[in-house]
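Re: weekly structure request thread

Next one in the queue (73 aa):
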Amino acid sequence: MATPLNKVRFALCIADEGAEDLQKGKVYRVLPDAKASRSGFVRVIDESDEDYLYPKSYFAPLDLPSTVKRALL
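Done, posted below.
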C-alpha cells in the first residue's frame, strides 16, 4: 500500500561529515522512525538507495506542496 502524500516527508541535507552516501544540498526522503528520532537521528533514503540513520543535525525538514512531493517520488 502506498503512503499518502500528506505523510511523506523530505529534508534538505545541510551537513555530510563522514557520510559518504549523502550530498550536502540534496533533498532526501525521510522515513518514519520514532525510536531513532528520540535518539537524535533521522532515517533517510540515501545515495545508496537504502535507508540509514543519520544525525538530525545533518538535515533541515522541508514543507513541500503535494505537487513537488509527487515529482520527487
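The longest strand covers residues 9-13. The mean pLDDT is 91.
Next request, please.
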